[in-house]
Amino acid sequence: MKLDKQLIQDHNKKLHDKHQSGFSFIADRLTTEGHDVERILAKIAALQIAIPSWALGTGGTRFSRFSGGGEPGSLEEKIADVGLLHAINRSSGAISLHIPWDIPKDAKAIKSLAKEYDLVFDAVNSNTFQDQADQELSYKYGSLSHSDKAVRKLAIEHNVDVIKHGELLGSKALTVWLADGTCFPGQQNFRKAFQRTLESLKEIYTALPDDWQMFIEYKPYEPYFYSTVIQDWGTSHLLASKLGKKAYCLVDLGHHLPNTNIEQIVATLMMEGKLGGFHFNDSKYGDDDLTVGSIKPYQLFLIFNELVYGMEDPASINPPPAWMIDASHNVKDPLEDLLQSVEAIKLAYTQALLVNKEELEAARENNDATQAQEILQHAYRTDVRPLIAEARRRAGAALHPITLFRNLNVRKQLIQERGLKTVSTGL
Ligand code: LRH
Ligand code: MN
Predict the structure, then answer these.
(1) Does ligand 1 lie within 6 Å of residue 180's CB atom?
(2) Less Cβ crowding at N or C end of the chain, within 10 Å?
(3) Is the beta carbon of 102 within 6 A of some atom in ligand 1?
């Protein structure tokens, strides 16, 4: 469904006065505090978040899945939905595909369709955590780490195949997440599993085009519940360091044991120049894949505080990270959930841009924890929503995405177009 720009202008006109007073209030305050509001607005607009192709339908758990209707039943419809999000917030200008869930039958046609919606393709994701219908050898006991060389070969060939699909679409990165692991003590030789995974990744690494990156995503558990071969940032960093300069670590916020200090991991990986990118989501307990910023918004701010520190550090050796969402929608409308997630990422980023880094460094050098918290939370407690809305308005997007999405009855229109029963490939 293509969104008529006039509908966005009409929406913004209705909200203009309320927005203008909120924006001039915060702009004046920040200018008084010495901030360059125009520089901040430019940085907000430049932050583009990639939308996962596997999270445009209703997610589910092993217990149930309650479809909301009007879901995209093809890659073309998925691109249309991401295009709709991008038209509404001009902040979702990329789509991250998962292979084989979203194999482009005609890559050229898919690439030009995405262009129509002003979308590019971010990292492509391989899948060696499911057996395909016609697959002879199973990934039940692993893929790149499997004890059987033939299974490892199959998984390597799949990843090389995914790179080829990505090249045809203009993608520049491969994300490798391995479910490989065990459910019981003694089930696997940890050393052999690591070595086999490294040897397999080396073969995939040689197939990477020169200007590509490989993102190694770690996860402590699920689908296996005793050990996971690539369980934490240290293992991912070890592999990325042994593979070479095109290999990086991918931080999925939901892939950390409770109370893990993720902002410290981000600072360390950035310091090492090995932070490749993110799968943004939020969680209360496990890999819950909830709306970004819905459970731990302060942690997200602290993560962006470390990111901004690294990105503004002239001596930083870390390339610009890949910004991607990885979520699953069990109770919210998938598109509303994604609009809220993009907003939460921009909120945390903008608040982090407001941190007075000189004063914070001075407080830290003086071991003044109280002053350090005052400085951090002054930025965190600043309502930056009018700034993000203004950046959207200037980009021709909606001042309030959720309000526009609902006023236009987008889901109702999608159900009329696609019906109630369409199922979207993915989680
Ligand atoms: C694993 C994961 C990985 C994807 C999958 C959809 O939990 O985060 O990034 O491949 O979700
Ligand atoms: Mn992920």
Answers:
(1) no
(2) N
(3) no
Is the minimum distance from the CB of 252 to ligand 1 under 6 angstroms? Answer: yes
Pair type for strands 181-182 and 227-228: antiparallel
72-97 pLDDT tens trace = 999 999 999 999 999 999 999 999 99
Q: Could you tell me if 355 and 153 are in contact, meaning their C-beta atoms sit under 8 angstroms apart?
A: no
Residue 121 phi, psi dihedral angles, 5° rounding: -105, 120
Compute the distance between CA of residue 78 and CA of residue 98 in angstroms, rounded to an integer. 12
User: Which ligand minimizes its atom distance to the CA of 325?
Assistant: 2
d(CA 227, CA 183): 7
pLDDT digits (tens, 9 = 90+) for 310-331: 999 999 999 999 999 999 999 9
Nearest CA to ligand 1 atom 3: 177
User: What is the CA angle 386-323-202, rounded to 5?
Assistant: 170
DSSP 353-403: HTS-HHHHHHHHHTT-HHHHHHHHHHHHTS--HHHHHHHHHHTT--SSHHH
114-147 pLDDT tens trace: 999 999 999 999 999 999 999 999 999 999 999 9
Q: Specify the residue with its C-alpha closest to ligand 1, atom 1.
A: 177
Residue 9 identity: Q
Number of other residues whose CB lies within 10 A of the CB of residue 257: 10
Q: Token digits for 109?
A: 């046609």
What's the whole-model pTM score?
0.97
Structure tokens at 261: 């200090």
